[in-house]
Amino acid sequence: MLGWLVINSFIDSKKFNELYDCFKNASMRNGIDLEIKTTDSLICDIESNFTNFKLPDFVLFWDKDIYLAQMLEQQNLRLFNSARAIELCDNKILTGLCLKNKVPIPKTIIAPKTFEGVNYCKKEFLVKSIEILGLPLIIKEANGSFGQQVYLAKSYEEAEKIIDNLGHKEFLMQEYINTSQGKDIRVNVVGSQVVSAMLRYNDNDFRSNISNGGKMKPVSITQHQEQIAITACQTIGLDYAGVDILFGINDEPIVCEVNSNPHFKSSYECTGIDMSMKIMEHVKRCV
To answer: What is the pTM of this model?
Structure first.
């Protein structure tokens, strides 16, 4: 069986390369020949149908290049994850719209659309949003990773400054779940099954991300938390994902984000469970 591992052309870091090595090793142990393809190596005329390539049996798409993913799917290739699922996860606004009424999510308001050069020159929507969501207020750029595009505004003035700095970028606003200050559970799901979970916590930041100085430890999750993580993945149409679950009142689980390309090295170090092996076993069952 031949597969492609499609990765971003412009990211070259130890953190990402370690993941790619994990997939290569897991593929070899499953009898799969996995070739690494950078996104720029697959450049072609959109009408050429990749005629210059020997197409694989499947594609492990470890990037967020939705257009390339769609082109590959037009060749009837099976992508893990699909272009649509990646698109829904990569845009937090689309994630919220997809998950509403399916699983608990924070109360959310989508910022009205603006344009480059115009930006958010009027702030009446912010006043109304604060009336609905209260303060502190979470502001999230529609696109972002590792918690770097997530902000906490404790006042109207702080929110206004954050929004001004965003320019014309799309964003959403959410109620602040103070019962989950600096902590959440990362639940790793593969093939509609939870394969590992870890508690992430940070005493010095409202975000729990390990990349922001957070710590981690293994955790046993409840059946309710497990079912919510699985439902979130099934709703979006994911083969695998990392689901971040907040602690609501009385520890009621609330889905914060769903990651279609979870950086699972921390989970591996914490739990000893290799998500790359679980993913490749799932791929082998599906192709």
So the answer is: 0.95
